[in-house]
Amino acid sequence: MRTSYGVVWRVGESPLARGKLELLPRVVRLDGVTGEERVAFEIPYEELECVHVGRTPAERLNGHQTLVLEQRGREPVVVSAVAQAGVLAEITERVAKLTLS
Questions:
Q1: How far from each other are the two terminal CA atoms of the chain, in whole angstroms?
Q2: pLDDT at 82 over 70
Q3: Mean pLDDT for all residues in the chain
Q4: What are the structural domains of the chain?
Q5: Which contacts qualify for 69-78: CB closer than 8 Å, 24 or more apart?
Q6: What are the residues facing 66 on neighbouring strands?
Q7: What is the pLDDT confidence band of residue 84, given thresholds at 50, 70 and 90?
Q8: What are the backbone angles phi and psi of residue 99, rounded to the nearest 5°?
Q9: pTM: predicted TM-score of the whole model, two decimal places
């Protein structure tokens, strides 16, 4: 099973970023660009309070459902898969399993 996915994401109200999401043994890693600025950060699974599929208009990106990663004391990260149907469900399932581990 793969551990890297092409995604777009937004942290809170920040500009949309594009790049990849990696499911590493202890963290979700997002690595890419927003405009011309490079952005990369990691979210430890142990810091995730809630993981759910975003269906409301405020949680969607470009009208698409998203994976919402809610961390303690931080703005939520909203992630959408790029170009591959079903990938969002796969990512959501894998993150949920890793969070419970």
A1: 17
A2: yes
A3: 90
A4: 4-100 (2.30.29.30)
A5: 69/28, 69/43, 69/95, 71/43, 71/47, 72/47, 75/11, 75/12, 75/13, 75/14, 76/11, 76/12, 77/9, 77/10, 77/11, 77/30, 77/43, 78/9, 78/10, 78/54
A6: 54
A7: low
A8: -65, -35
A9: 0.87
